[in-house]
Task: inverse folding
């Protein structure tokens, strides 16, 4: 009597019916730490997308109201023991003319393409001054973020806290595609020290330079390069550690197959969390000038 060996099922049959191998508890445990890491990364992407929204279609008039900007400015001046500013209609008119000029001519500078200076624009509104200052901003989500960015910059903060200024005018304008960077809200502030004697000579307008502001600058109340530099170094180091760690893990997984269990999953989760937070902090909020 001869015994015929039982025919083996073809590989595709065994795979389809889960006969090719068993998924042990250790096998499944390898993949669980990746779920919170994935959620952290997706959360970071979502937060960055929210920070990128300019609210240029709905609700921007409320978010950037001149009344809110005035309130924030005077709150800063009070904290630094400076007298509060009062709104001047001529300065508000000059600010609106500047905002409209920026949108209409699609440029970003204190001097217009036709060569009109802030001093000329303020004077043309009828406001006679000894000294004045002009702050500009675009790309931010609200008046709070604009004021925070201005206060983080020494030259913009100097305009806000200038003890000689007593008047201010604010204006806000919307552009559908400002500087080819998409929809944006432009904010203009004109500060002034009136000249009651109507002497026009020796007028000075303080105009800060362009600066890119991120969340780290606002949180540290400074435009110094070091917060962004340190965060960038953290991202590179964390990414390097994760890559090196998982290169070893991949090699070990190849040699030991599914029996390999990630020994310290919380370390990976923490590293991904640190890198995600750092990427949010260095995300650009807007431009001030």
Result:
């Amino acid at each position: 009597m001869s015994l015929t060996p039982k025919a083996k099922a073809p590989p595709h049959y065994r795979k389809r019916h889960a006969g090719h191998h068993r998924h042990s508890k250790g096998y499944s445990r390898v993949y669980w730490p990746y779920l919170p890491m994935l959620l952290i990364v997706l959360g970071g992407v979502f937060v960055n997308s929210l920070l990128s929204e300019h609210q240029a279609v709905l609700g921007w008039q409320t978010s950037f109201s001149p009344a809110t900007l005035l309130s924030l400015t005077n709150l800063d001046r009070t904290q630094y023991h400076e007298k509060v500013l009062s709104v001047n209609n001529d300065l508000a008119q000059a600010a609106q003319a500047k905002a409209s000029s920026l949108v209409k001519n699609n440029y970003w500078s204190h001097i217009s393409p036709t060569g009109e200076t802030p001093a000329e624009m303020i004077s043309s509104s009828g406001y006679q001054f000894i000294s004045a200052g002009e702050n500009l901003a675009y790309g931010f989500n609200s008046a709070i973020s604009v004021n925070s960015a201005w206060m983080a910059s020494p030259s913009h903060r100097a305009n806000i806290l200038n003890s000689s200024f007593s008047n201010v005018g604010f204006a806000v304008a919307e552009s559908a595609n400002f500087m080819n960077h998409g929809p944006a809200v432009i904010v203009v502030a004109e500060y002034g020290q009136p000249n009651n004697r109507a002497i026009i000579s020796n007028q000075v307008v303080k105009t800060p330079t362009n600066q890119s502001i991120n969340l780290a600058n606002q949180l540290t109340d400074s435009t110094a390069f070091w917060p962004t530099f340190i965060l960038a170094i953290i991202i590179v180091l964390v990414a390097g550690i994760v890559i090196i760690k998982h290169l070893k893990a991949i090699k070990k997984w190849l040699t030991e197959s599914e029996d390999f269990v990630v020994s310290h999953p919380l370390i990976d989760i923490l590293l991904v969390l640190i890198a995600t937070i750092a990427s949010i902090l260095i995300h650009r909020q807007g431009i001030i000038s």
